[in-house]
Every structure is written in structure tokens, then in C-alpha cells.
Amino acid sequence: MTACALQIRRIYEPVAATDGARVLVDRLWPRGLSKQAAALDLWLKDIAPSPALRTWFGHDPARFAEFTERYHQELTNHPEPVAVLQQLRQARPVTLLYAAHDPAINHARVLAEYLQNL
């Protein structure tokens, strides 16, 4: 069975009809956002980078390549939350939601690429 579509969006963007299952993949709750406004199907904190990795990265573009490698290793070493997302994708499209400002340099992008390559 093939997996359904996977997309990423900033959680502060309005909910879209094409979102499918809305999954927050941040460890921390986004500032200034109510749970009602988030309209989540799932908050999967355990799939986010570890606090140590997140702190080391600090959204520094110069560290993004190494961050990607380290985050892939964390995902490989902790397959349970990855399996949750893969199972969800069997049923319907999934939108990975993140709060970071940069749409190109963030862990949700890395996670989406990781999931697409499984």
C-alpha cells in the first residue's frame, strides 16, 4: 500500500481543506496559538529533535547539513514516532506542522524528506 501525500506548513498558517491529518512535530507548544486555532489531529512531540540537538543547531544555516545527519540518526534510533506517522499516512494525507520562522531551514523539512525516503 502506498503512502498518502505528505506536506509541511507553518502552524500559524490558516487551516486548509487539503491538510488531511494535521500533526504538530515540535516539542514545544507554539507561542500565542490556542489549541482550538491549531486544529490538530495529533501532537507528536517525540518525533521532534532532542532538546540537546535543537539547542546545538540553534537554526544556524551553517549547521544545517550536520543537523540533518544528526536528526536522521535520532529518527533511526527512535522508530516508534516515525511508525506512527507512517501508519497515519496509509489512511490519509498528512501535514507536518512546525513553528520555526524559516521555511527552508527547519526540522519539519528534514523529517518530511526522511519519511519520503523510507
Amount of beta strand: 5-15%
How many strands in all? 4
Distance N terminus to C terminus? 13 Å
- What's the domain count? 1
Over all CA atoms, what is the radius of gyration? 14 Å
The secondary-structure class comes to: alpha/beta
Question: What is the overall number of helices?
Answer: 5
Biggest β-sheet strands, sense, barrel: 4 strands, parallel
Instruction: Report the helical percentage.
Output: 40-55%
**SSE run:** EEHEHHHEH
Spatial arrangement of strands, main beta sheet: 1-4-2-3
What would you note in describing this structure?
With 118 residues, the protein is of the alpha/beta class. The protein has one domain (6-116). It is 41% helix and 14% strand. It is built from 5 helices and 4 strands. Strands 1-4-2-3 form a 4-stranded parallel beta sheet, with helices on one face. β2 (21-24), α1 and β3 form a beta-alpha-beta unit.
How is the secondary structure organized here?
Elements: E1 6-10, E2 21-24, H1 35-38, E3 42-43, H2 51-57, H3 64-77, H4 79-91, E4 94-98, H5 107-116
Parallel strand pairs: 1-4, 2-3, 2-4
